[in-house]
Amino acid sequence: MYQTRKPRGESSVTIIGAGIAGAWQALLFAQAGHDVTLHERGDASLTLSTSHWAGGMLAPWCETEVAEPVISRLGLRSLDLWRRELPDTAFNGSLVVAHARERADFERFAKMTLNHRRLDAADLAALEPSLEGRFREALFFADEGHVEPRRVLPKLHEKIIAAGGTIHFNSDVSASEVDGLVIDCRGLFARDAQPELRGVKGEMILIETGEVELRRPVRLIHPRWPLYVIPREKNLFMLGATSIETEDTGVSVRSALELLGAAYAVHPAFAEARILEFGSGLRPAFPDNLPRIAINGDSIAVNGLYRHGFLIAPALAELTLGFVARGQIDNEVMQCA
Amino acid sequence: MLTFYSKQFSSRLLIGTALYPSPAIMQTAIRASGAQIVTVSLRREAAGGKSGDAFWSLIRELGVTVLPNTAGCRSVREAVTTAKLARELFGTSWIKLEVIADNDTLQPDVVGLVEAATILIKDGFEVFPYCTEDFSVATRLVDAGCKVVMPWAAPIGSARGIINRDALRLLRDRLPDITLVVDAGIGAPSHAAHALELGYDAVLLNTAVAKAKDPVAMAGAFRLGVEAGRVAFEAGLMDARDFASPSTPVVGTPFWHAVS
Fold this sequence. Notes:
Chain A is of the alpha/beta class. Chain A is 27% helix and 26% strand. In chain A, strand 2 (12-16), helix 1 and strand 3 (35-39) form a beta-alpha-beta unit. Chain B is an alpha/beta fold. Chain B contains ten helices and ten strands. In chain B, the strands form two sheets. An eight-stranded parallel β-sheet of chain B has the order 5-4-3-10-9-8-7-6. Chain B has a two-stranded antiparallel sheet with strand order 1-2. Chain B starts with a strand and ends with a helix.
C-alpha cells in the first residue's frame, strides 16, 4: 500500500478552507513544526462550510453498511487521533434501532456491519433509560463516538493557533496567488479545480427538549438514509441527515416530515420539543464517494470527504503530512499527477 | 428483440438508479447488468436540468435510454404534473406511471392509474403503468392505449418474488400483443428467471441490485437470471406433473420405473 518518494520537507504551508478537512491538516502540520497559514472565505461561524451542518458521527463500524473498506481504515485511525488531540471526545458508543416495519432492514444492517452487540429491551433500558419500553432490541456499537461540530471546530482552531499557526477568516484566497506548498480543502467550492466533484444534499433539524435524555446517538433504520438523533449539550438534539442527489439547498417538507418522524419514532416526547433550526449542506463527493488526496507539484487537494468528514479528516491529514515530511504515498487515497 | 413503443432492445432487464452506495458503483452495476433502459425518479433525485446536474451527467454517460418515473405521487393530478415536468427535463415522452394508494404498502392506486394513463396518452405520452396483477385493471390500461403493462411480482422492495403466478399467467395469456414487464418485488435472480419463464417480456428492479452487498456482482447475476428465464421460455418448459415417483421398487412394475 505504501511507497515512498523524496521528502518535500516544506516549512511554510498554506491551507485553504477551515472546515473539518482543513482544520485537521492545519493542526497536524503546525504541530509538526511547519509555518501554517489557514484561510477561510467565511467568518468564524463557518456557516459557509459543509462541516457546520454535519452530524459529527465517529462511526466507522456503522458506516461499513455502505462504505468501502478504505473508509473504515481511515476512520479507525482517526478515532485514535481524535482521542490523542481531544481526549474529552465522547466515545460512549452508538445505538441502532428499528421500527417493527423495518425489521428486515434491521437484520440486513446487523449482517453488513461489524463490532456490535445485540441488546434486548432490558439491556437497552439500562444503557438509555429514556428508551425503556420503546424497542424490543437494538444494536450497540460500543466503540463509536461523536463530536459536536459547532463546538469542536473552534477548539481545533484554538489548538492550531496554540501550535503556532495563523488563521485568516473572511479571506478568499486562491491557490495560484500563494507561493510554496498549498493544501486545498475547499470542499465543493473547489469545483473550479476538480470538476468531477458533485454536491449531495444533507438536511438537518435542531430541536430542544428537556423531556428526553440520550447519552449517545441513536440511529433509526430508514429505507433510504441513515437517520440519527444525536444528543447535543443543553437539551439540544440534532436530527439528520438526508442524502439526496441534488444541489438544491433548503429543507423540503418531505425531508422535514421524515426527520421529525424519526425523532418521534425514537421517543414520542420529542413531539413537544421546540424546533430551533432547519439547515442543509452540500457534501462534496467524487463519483465513487471516496476521498482523494490529489498531489500536483506544489499543490495538494484534499477533497471528496462526502458524508465522512469528521470520521476521516484526521487520518487524511496524517497521510498528507506523511507525504510532505517523509514522501510516503498511500495508493488507496493519493493521486499523483 | 424486445419492443417498447416501437423502440427495440436486446436486454430484458430494466434497472433503477436509486440507493446505490455511490454513483460510480451505480454506473458499473448498470453496465454489468447489460440493461439498456434505466428508470430515474424525478421527484427525489437528479432533475435533468439544473440542480442535480452532476448526478444526471453520470447517468447520461451510460448511454442508455432513460425512463423517468412518477415515484412517490399520490394523486392523478400530481402524477400528471410530474410526468409533464419529466418530459421537459429529460426530453422523452416515455413515462413510468406510478400512482400510489397507500404509503405503507406502496400499493398502486389502480383507479387513479387508469385515469392518469388516459390523460397522459391523450397528451402524447408513451405510458409504462405500474399496476397490480389484476386482469381487469390491465385491460382498462390497454383500452386506454397503453402498449406496455407492468404488474408487480410483490409489493415494492419486499423481495418476495412472484406471489400470484396464476394471475400473471392469465395476463400473459390474454394480452399476447402487449409488452409485459414484471415490476417490483423481485429479490433474487431466480425470481427474475421465473418471470421470464412465464413469458414476460422483461423485468424491472432496483433494490435487489443496489442494496446487495456487492451490487456489481448481483447485477451480473440478474443479467444471467433474465437470460436463463428467456431462453427457457423460448425452449419450451416441461409441464409439472401430478404423480410422484415411488422411492422403493414396487413388485410387478417395469424395471424402468424401479430405477431412477
